[in-house]
Amino acid sequence: MKVIRIKPTRNHGLNAPINIYQVLSWIVNLFNIIISSLILIPTMNLPSKIIYTILYSTTQIISIIYAYRATICDPTDPLLLSYREKVKRGERPEAVSYQAFCTICNCNVSLKAKHCGQCNRCVDNFDHHCKWLNNCIGQKNYHLFTQLIAILEINMLTITAFGLTQLCEYYVNYDEYVDKVSDISSSINPKSFLILTFIVTIEAAIIAFLTAHLLALHVWLKMKGMTTFEYILSRRNKKQKLTQVGDAKDTTVNIGDHEISYNYTEPPKTPLHEKKSFPEIITEEQYAGGEEIDISKLHTVLSPTFSHNTERTTENVFN
């Protein structure tokens, strides 16, 4: 008997496990807020203080809002969500025509839906899996993602520009700079302020450069009418011949450490709901304790957050 453990589905970016890159983004943002509030702003002249406070505060607040909305958004394919709701209520899936069928979710999906191995779900109009948000970017949150990187670019350029100004201020008007530091605390060494200003400026400049590259890529992809996933496939297609989407073979593509499966356009010969052995009902409580399930009896799972197909190999599904 072959026994497996079911991998849970991530509905949004705050579902466990939290990605290390996601935590790193929180730390960097917190660091920038602290340095801006305690180091940069206090050492600026009045006009610079006003301009920087308005620009930085506005872009920082907006970026946090966009990041949160893009993270908690569930970009799962609507057909898959509808299927899970019916299974949850104990209803048989109806015999309907569909564009594509995911052999992992065992469900009808949209033609441009892709299965993310990291989140274990099909995403409508899949673009890519963002490790910084710990979530897939698809139809529902793509506009939030692009707005996020645009406002983040302005935020990082603001820090970089004013950080460079303060570094110049240290050497050009040293006495005035020291007086401003002394007003904050007489026990603080001005060089400590200089070092922290240098660190936050370099960090912001690097992020601004990378974000600009990412933003330019998505502008170009938008003009071409392509997704990031399709772009990666087109590049790989120049080096090797990819299996056709309509082939009756398993087709997967690895983006980093995330396995993505692009779905079949041809329906299976026997639809899932017409199989003689109708999916056995398995409650979610069985998964809570990590109960082992007999794969020979498992077709689908009675849960809105778990699904599996026996036609796929264990290695492909659960890596």
Estimate the helix proportion, in percent. 40-55%
Major sheet attributes: 4 strands, antiparallel
Q: What is the count of structural domains?
A: 2
Rg calculated over all Cα atoms:
25 Å
* Contiguous helical run count: 9
In sequence order, what are the helices and strands, one letter per element? Answer: EHHHEEEEEEHHHHEEHEH
The side-by-side strand order for the widest beta sheet comes to 5-4-9-8
Number of strands: 10
- Which stretches are low in confidence, meaning pLDDT under 50 for 5 or more residues running? 242-246, 248-252, 255-259, 261-319
Walk me through the structure.
With about 325 residues, the protein is α+β, with helices and mostly antiparallel strands. It folds into two domains: about 20-75 and about 140-225, no CATH class; about 75-130 and about 230-319, no CATH class. The protein has helices at about 20-40, 45-70, 80-90, 140-170, 175-185, 190-225, 230-235, 285-290, 315-319; strands at about 5, 100, 105-110, 115, 120-125, 130, 135, 250-255, 260, 295. The strands form four sheets. A four-stranded antiparallel beta sheet has the order 5-4-9-8, covered by helices on one side. A two-stranded antiparallel ribbon has the order 1-10. The chain has a two-stranded antiparallel sheet with strand order 2-3. The longest helix has about 35 residues, at about 190-225. It starts with a strand and ends with a helix.
Short key terms for the protein model shown above:
single chain, alpha+beta, disordered C terminus, four-stranded antiparallel β-sheet, 49% helix, two-stranded antiparallel sheet, 2 domains, transferase, elongated, 319 residues
